[in-house]
Amino acid sequence: MKFAYRFSNLLGTVYRRGNLNFTQDGNSVISPVGNRVTVFDLKNNKSDTLPLATRYNVKCVGLSPDGCLAIIVDEGNGLGPEHGVWGGGRHGGWLFYPDWVVSVEKSEDVSVGWASRPHAKKGEEDVKVWNTLSGFCFITFTEHSSGVTGVTFTSTGYVIVTSSMDGTVRAFDLHRYRNFRTFTSPRPTQFSCVAVDGSGEIVSAGAQDSFEVFIWSMQTGRLLDVLSGHEGPISGLSFNPAKSVLASASWDKTVRLWDMFDSWRTKETLALTSDALAVTFRPDGAELAVATLNSQITFWDPENAVQTGSIEGRHDLRAGRKELDKITAKHSAKGKSFTTLCYSADGQNILVGGLSKFVCIYHVKEQILVRKFEISCNLSLDAMEEFLNRRKMTEFGNLALIDQDAGEEDGVVIPLPGVRKGDMSSRHFKPEIRVTSLRFSPTGRCWAATTTEGLLIYSLDARMTFDPFELDTSITPSRIRAALRQRDFTRAILMAFRLNEQALVQEALESVPQDEVEVVSSSLPELYVEKVLEFLATSFEVSRHLEFYLLWTRQLLMQHGQKLKSRAGMLLPAVQFLQKSIQRHLNDLSKLCDWNCYNMRYALAVSKQRGVKRPAEPPGSEEEAAASTDDEDSLRLLAGTEEEEGEMLS
């Protein structure tokens, strides 16, 4: 270890007697404190007291090389030292397992589902599911006992699979809100990532310490296979959406492709120039993207194992300088990289983020930066600015460094190496800004990010921008309304979409009579069919004309279905957005309709049981005559009352 630790900082109390022993892996320190022995976990900044006590204060402690035996010598009150042996293993004593030490660093992740519950966020040990329509967290799963490292949805959107440092992979049901599957490995290991295939039947997780990939069956929960071959921790997993191929990225500078139908044999091994940090397939499965430690994004053809392109993103990160950094932001940026990436729904762009406050969108084919998002302007976070505040600079250096070095007094906490969270109870707590995970929604209309600031959602709002399409000087709102008055609905709709003002588009579509929707929809050009579908998907969420828009959707798909299938990849975001909007209305109305149907069935069943069935009265019956007479008397009385009130007012 390169740093000196004082036990007053680790424990909180001063004990200046006794010795100390480092464990074999260097992650823990064993030392006497009074008449007890305490184990200090340096990685998690925790302390555990062993279940033993001596009569006098402990003088020294010895630890066997395998960590299974501790020898304790206490002060014998002047009668000489007394020896005590505390064993481990099956004898009921204490046994030290270095592989069981887990990290509590917060690594948040997000996944986007298909229905109205699209976001799942993981914290240290909890998994929270959010509804983006209402913005509320409606369920929290607390089954994990250690930090959660990965979250993913199945294709149905009603099952969440999570991986954790506690050595388990769990599947949660969003219908009943329960943990219905728990996957474990033959021996305890820490899982760093998780992935589920397109059918939702195969679950895979990567190990951080054993460098293996574990495969389970979702239906039976049994371990199917263990894939070995990597020489470093597994950093990412991704299934090919179109084929039965699994890609695994590792710190050993390789990405391996495993064939599911060939007994999980290695199909290809892609050699990289640096450690792989993240991997993902394009939605059509024809391309693979890998983020590496040198801030590069490389694109590969998975069929031929050939690199097709690369993006150098080091200059786009623009990492800031932390308060405790002794080097400039320019030099510290050499150690920054992208740690998460995700393709857009159409596969033309890729979204990347990492150890910076910026999220970048690149065009895959042109390999250029399309847009950069600054996720936060909160200066209370660390590494927000490129240069330090000059007012805090002294002749001895930065004031933050001076405050951290003031460790002569008891009770001052010195941060441990590798700890990024710090002491959250400190008055000067400044977490480092970073992006831990990014996901595009299946509709392509929004993307979500988990950052130091929290869970952020960026969405397209077409109503707030003016974005014309093939606009010329002859297209004006007055000419659009003139075409509607002339009942030239097709030309009016085309002009409205070229002007691209939502109010005019809505007016043009809703002016079409219901019996002419079929004719107008069949006369629309193929280029405008996609735009009409996108507008219908957006209007389903805010409009009351549900049946009218459903008629438009049905006619467009019936008239142009064959042509749309030839461009299924480009139209997939619009179709998924349309399906999501219709599904939301179906969920809302089906509950109400089912409730009414069940009530009517109940009323009919009760009436049949009691035998109360009123026969239909003839049209000229006495009861109807009496009822009509009563109604006439009531109307006369009401009319007389109104006349009296009018006379009083006059």
UniProtKB/TrEMBL annotation:
Give the Acidic residues compositional bias ranges.
620-633, 641-650
In what residue span(s) does the Small-subunit processome Utp12 domain sit? 500-604
GO annotation (BP), single:
maturation of SSU-rRNA from tricistronic rRNA transcript (SSU-rRNA, 5.8S rRNA, LSU-rRNA)
**Sorted alphabetically, which PROSITE patterns does this protein's record hold?**
WD_REPEATS_1, WD_REPEATS_2, WD_REPEATS_REGION
Q: Which InterPro entries match?
A: PWP2, Quino_amine_DH_bsu, SSU_processome_Utp12, WD40/YVTN_repeat-like_dom_sf, WD40_repeat_CS, WD40_repeat_dom_sf, WD40_rpt
Q: What Pfam family is a match, any one?
A: WD40
Q: Where are the WD repeats?
A: 141-182, 227-260
Task: Say which domain of life the source belongs to.
Answer: Eukaryota
- Where are the residues of the annotated region Disordered? 609-650
Protein name as it appears in the record: Periodic tryptophan protein 2 homolog
Task: Tell me which species this is from.
Answer: Trichechus manatus latirostris (Florida manatee)
Q: Which gene encodes it?
A: PWP2
